Here is the input.
Amino acid sequence: MEKKESIKISLSTLFLIIAIIIIFVMGYFMYKLYNDKVEETNKATDLQKQVVKLNETINDLQGKINSINDTINTDNTSGNTTKTSENTKNTVGFPEEEVKKAISNYLELDAHAACGALLTKLTENGQINFNPSKYDINTSTGEITTNVKFSDYKNAMLNYVTEAEFERNWTSKQYFNENANGYLTKMQGGGGLRIYTIKNISKTNDTTFSVNTSSVVEDNEYYEENTFTFTVKSNNGKCVIDSCK
Here is the structure.
């Protein structure tokens, strides 16, 4: 009986040992699986962190590229603005001959206006069609209604002067008006034509000039010397007189 009991205990111990071994083996495999999973998770996390850092680096580089492009564009804009300003500055100053021609035309028209022949001169220049035989005279006032539309006269004068100068010196001061029908009216007048000679033009700035002249009436009488101050301006790219003093 004791021998059988000993054998039975030995088998139980063996089974216990085997069970413990199995438990250890299973525990080992479970531990390995867990570690592998944790390692994979850590690897995924590390990879995600690297991706985030890479995106941050890309964004940083893109920001620097944008900053460089903005600087280049600003420099180009500044350069273009400078060139535009230089070109504008160059177009403000007219060539000396063009300025002299504008002043000469003004003096010639002023001389014709003084002797009542301004419309005739503008007709000679091909800018209006004034016909002295086609007008009505108010005998009580001496006012003449011409065959020239006031608007045509104004457009003709804007080849020589600005609108401000036209309103200032080439309407009421010449006794020119517009009647209800839009025609130019003027007062009778006449006299000898003064002929100007430009002796010298001194440039004050790009738009202002001091002009010394001599002049005589067409029969070489009434000699005068005068100094005028002219300012010029661009009208549709053409040099015209903006003021005369």
